[in-house]
Amino acid sequence: MLTMFPDRAQAAAAATERLEAALRHRLDRDGKATLAVSGGTTPEPVFHALAERPLPWEHISVTLTDERCVPAEDPASNEGLLRRSLLQGTAGAARFVPLSDEGVALLPQRLAAVLLGMGEDGHFASLFPDAANLGKGLAVPGEGSVIDILTAASPHPRRSLTLARLLATDCLLLLAFGEAKRAVLENPGATPVATLLGQGERPLEILWAP
């Protein structure tokens, strides 16, 4: 489902509302919840807004859909972005779960919510079109939760949750801005996001703004 907003602020606000609702639903059911989010500039306003929500953050875990293999202090680190934006104030009580093998093993079988972004080349998470192991990352059902990615689009090696792992969630959102990304969504061709759009395992809501 594609939901279009007149501006990015409204799209970010809607994403924040949906993530909060999904977290509360899972908290009410299990007493704890896990959120997986992408990095980059697109979701950053969502992180700031979500951090201000009066959630029981001490019962919430936060992980990443993908990460560059750099120290958290590196400007390219998605973990660093989260620590500067989402894991602040009362939200700092949340547990951060890194995409190490040990961290991924701690994730629950089902996530409360997943917030994805995408690139103009049709990649999402770090499932890039030129990755040699892209087929493994996109396989549904698939084996394994996380894969290592090499792509010419990045100077750093990356780690990414697989599509099969990302689909194990109550709420699956894709936040995308700009006409170029809308064009890819409307005509994805053979890009990785085509597999995400075509899968029938989990409803996907796309939140788009110019």
Provide an overview of this structure.
The structure is a single chain. The chain is α/β, with parallel strands linked by helices and 210 residues long. The chain has one domain: Rossmann fold (3-Layer(aba) Sandwich), CATH 3.40.50. The protein is built from 8 helices and 10 strands. The protein has helices spanning 8-30, 44-51, 78-85, 101-106, 134-138, 163-166, 179-186, 192-198, and strands at residues 2-4, 33-37, 60-64, 66-68, 95-97, 113-116, 146-149, 158-161, 172-177, 204-209. The strands form 2 sheets. It has a 7-stranded parallel beta sheet with strand order 1-10-9-6-2-3-5, with helices on both faces. It has a 3-stranded antiparallel beta sheet with strand order 4-8-7. Strand 2, helix 2 and strand 3 (60-64) form a beta-alpha-beta unit. It is globular and about 40 Å long. The mean pLDDT is 97.
Topology record:
Elements: E1 2-4, H1 8-30, E2 33-37, H2 44-51, E3 60-64, E4 66-68, H3 78-85, E5 95-97, H4 101-106, E6 113-116, H5 134-138, E7 146-149, E8 158-161, H6 163-166, E9 172-177, H7 179-186, H8 192-198, E10 204-209
Parallel strand pairs: 1-10, 2-3, 2-6, 3-5, 6-9, 9-10
Antiparallel strand pairs: 4-8, 7-8
Summarize the structure.
With 210 residues, this protein is an alpha/beta fold. The chain has helices at residues 8-30, 44-51, 78-85, 101-106, 134-138, 163-166, 179-186, 192-198, and strands at 2-4, 33-37, 60-64, 66-68, 95-97, 113-116, 146-149, 158-161, 172-177, 204-209.
